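Entry: DUF4345 family protein
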Amino acid sequence: MDILNIIFALTSIALGCFGWLAPKYTMSALDLDPGRSHMGPSEIRASVGCLFVGMGIGALILGGPTAYAMLGFCWCGAALGRLTSLLLDGRSRKKWVYFWVEAGVGVPAIVLNL
């Protein structure tokens, strides 16, 4: 269980680093247009990047089951948002892939730690 928790935390950190350090790449991967405003890359760095980096680092520092379960709840929150988009905004293969990645980290992290 401990190794899986560490993998979940490192996955959060690794994926968050893309949003944090490569927002244009991340925006392209998510089919987002940065437009004329600088707020697009800023939002990606914050909400898709450092938020997930901070969650992963926090879980590793705290190290307890509650911290890793909370990491799972955060990933499940992302999966819920993605599922809402699939239902209300239209379906695409890319959305389904992201949903399964988010749920695939979130659900096991919750189940293993509660």
